[in-house]
Amino acid sequence: MDIKEIIRPDNLVYKRTPLLTDATLSYCPGCGHGTIHRLIMEVVEEMGIQSETIGIAPVGCSVLAYEFMDIDMSQAAHGRAPAVATGIKRLWEDKFVFTYQGDGDLAAIGTGETIHACNRGENITIFFVNNGIYGMTGGQMAPTTLEGMKSSTSPYGRNNKTMGPPIKITEMIAPLPGVHYVTRQAVHKPGPVRKSKKAIRKAFEVQKEKKGLSFIEFVSNCNSGWKMTPNDSNIWMEEHMFPFYPMGDIKVDGKLVK
Fold this sequence. Notes:
The protein is an alpha/beta fold.
């Protein structure tokens, strides 16, 4: 078949959203960040809100987001993205404002900012990528690191007796009255990718309707930090991360469902 016939619009089952820049993704092969970027930008494109969307990325792998998303972006100090997002949203109430944060950033260094922004019910969206480790800064143990899971600062595995158990930050913030929508998703297979995109769209719709804060956790792999191949890391994630961090909605329309 001629190439022109193959790329006819009615034959295409996939196209790249123009809201991703032409920059080559610099994330490790197999990492979930690129897929999450694409889903967010697809939703922004479909809603027609490119010029109305502002993203905030702090320190960590998430700091690279501004190189790949063709929207207005602001960088925040480590852990402070919810505070920056609060200021931006209060100045421009009709803008769509989101943070894009990792687990070391959101659940450790930025715990205070996260909890209080959620408690206040700031009308923003928080995207939280949980791979159970500090990915960019050296593979250290994070609050989300599983019991027994090895890291550069827990080379013999996390010991709950001395290090405390992993924190389910998503379940912690869900009961807060200012939080309207909370869900946990993944992007390692087509099915979860579709569910993740629906969740992102719902979160932006909640913000549009001024109903409060939306919080989406993406359980992802870090094959480099975990010292695994991409495929092995996805299998390990399903076998170990998902039982502790189960997929699905936790709070919908202001009501807890789990």
